[in-house]
Design goal:
106 residues, GMP Synthetase, Chain A, domain 3, 30% helix, alpha+beta, 25% strand, single chain, 5 strands, three-stranded mixed sheet
């Protein structure tokens, strides 16, 4: 079974930011997904940011994301890298549904 960026994105959908209560995907915290197919399975690296550099739950969120990716059939190795550039901006990064729930209007 081939592991795709879309498969990984779907696997990350249930992972929530516990403070805000929305999916890390819908919040726009996923900055990139790299899938490298190998003989033993796929090596997946997710680049992820946080809503704030001071997020006290960052380690737990990163591990939840890594665990979700690792459970995908065909994934041999899962890694999640924390990135800060560009900084998270809900007006740009969040889905329309999240923006409406947070009261962010363009």
């Amino acid at each position: 079974m081939s592991v795709t960026v879309e498969t990984i994105r779907k696997a990350l959908q249930p992972v929530q930011d516990p403070e805000i209560g929305f999916s890390i995907v819908d919040l726009g915290l996923i900055r990139g997904i790299e899938v490298e197919e190998g003989e033993e399975g796929a090596r997946v690296t997710v680049k992820m940011t946080m809503t704030s550099p001071m997020c006290p739950l960052a380690p737990e969120m990163l591990e939840a994301a890594r665990h979700a990716v690792a459970k995908v059939p065909g994934v041999e190795h899962a890694a999640v890298e924390l990135v800060w550039s560009p900084p998270w901006d809900p007006r740009v990064d969040a889905s329309e549904e999240v923006k409406a729930e947070l009261g962010i209007w363009d």
